[in-house]
C-alpha cells in the first residue's frame, strides 16, 4: 500500500534448494513486505505518530493522506523505522567512542559550547498478562522494568553561546540547538552527547565545554571526560534550596521570605557566594528543623562554590540557568510520552524517542537513508 493507493507488481522470488529460504531482492532493497506499507508512506505515517498518539495518527492519515489504516498498523511502522533510527544512534555513539574514529572537521570549532543535561521520569508497562495472538497462544509477559513502574529518560541539549539572540526585551533564544535523549544510564547519555559534538565538529582542542547541571553528582562525575570544561550550578536550583530555608524562617507566603531570597539572588548573581555563606553561618535559627535546613544550605553552597561564579559566567555569555534542558524535557518527553494513561515498553519508548529526536533536530531526511528493519 503506497501513498496514492495499492500497487500490484510482479516481484521475482528466489528459493535456496538447501535451506528452503525464500528471498525477494527487490522488496528487501525497498524495505517492503508483500501486502504491507511502502517505505514512503511508512515515513509519513511515522511522522504523524511522532507528534500524535497512535489512534489520532491513524485518523490524521485518513484525513490528510486519504489512507485508511488502523492504529496498530501505524504502531508497526513506528517499530520498524524507530528500531532503525535507534540502531543508527547507538552505532554513532559506539563509533565515536573509538579513539581512532574521525569526526567532522574542527577548523571552525566554536570557542565554547554549552551542554545541559537532566533526567525525567517515564511511566512504564508492568503487565504480567497480555492478550492472545490471533488464533494462537497468549503473548509472553513483558520483561520486568529495571526501575519498576517508572524509568528515567535522560535528555541533553547542545547549543552555542554566541548564537543567542534577543527576540524581545529581556527574552533570549538560540538559533540552533541539538537534542540528545535516551533511556540509558548516565554513561550512555554522555557518550551520545560526545558523539553528537564530534559529528557537528563543535569540540576542538581549544573549545571550552560548559556543563550546566542541577547539582546531581552523576553529571559532575561524567563532566570530567572533557579536559577543557566549565561547570556551572543552575542558578534557579541554587535559589530553590534557599527558598526552603526562607519558608521555615518567615512563613510560607511571607514577604520577608521573598526579600531574604531576593538579597541572596542579587549577591550570587554578583559573584559574592563566599559572602552569602558567611552571612548564613552567622544566623542563629530557633528551631532544630530550621537549623538542620540551614546547615544543609550552607553545605550545598560550600560544595558548589566553584560552580557559582555567576558574574563571570554572565560576562562570558555562558548563561547561568538550565532552562534549555527543562524546555527540552517538555518537547521531547512530556508532549508525546506523558499524556493521560500512557505506559510504555522499553523497546517502544526507545524507538519512538529516536524518531522524535530526528524531527526536533530537523534531521528527518536521515530516515530516507535508513532501512525498514524487521522486528518481532
Describe, in plain words, how this protein is organized in 3D.
With 376 residues, the chain is α/β, with parallel strands linked by helices. It has three domains: 14-98 and 344-369, no CATH class; 112-129 and 145-234 and 323-330, Nucleotidyltransferase, domain 5, CATH 3.30.420; 237-307, no CATH class. Helices cover 46% and strands 14% of the residues. It has helices at 25-30, 39-51, 54-65, 71-97, 186-200, 217-223, 235-250, 255-269, 273-281, 288-303, 310-316, 323-337, 346-360; strands at residues 14-15, 22-23, 112-123, 150-159, 164-168, 171-174, 177-182, 208-213, 229-233. A five-stranded mixed β-sheet has the order 7-4-3-8-9, with helices on both faces. Strands 1-2 form a two-stranded antiparallel ribbon. It has a two-stranded antiparallel ribbon with strand order 5-6. It is elongated, with a radius of gyration of 26 Å. The two termini are 21 Å apart. The model has no long low-confidence stretch (mean pLDDT 88).
List the SSEs and their pairings.
Layout: E1 14-15, E2 22-23, H1 25-30, H2 39-51, H3 54-65, H4 71-97, E3 112-123, E4 150-159, E5 164-168, E6 171-174, E7 177-182, H5 186-200, E8 208-213, H6 217-223, E9 229-233, H7 235-250, H8 255-269, H9 273-281, H10 288-303, H11 310-316, H12 323-337, H13 346-360
Brief write-up:
The chain is built from 13 helices and nine strands. It has helices spanning 25-30, 39-51, 54-65, 71-97, 186-200, 217-223, 235-250, 255-269, 273-281, 288-303, 310-316, 323-337, 346-360; strands at 14-15, 22-23, 112-123, 150-159, 164-168, 171-174, 177-182, 208-213, 229-233.
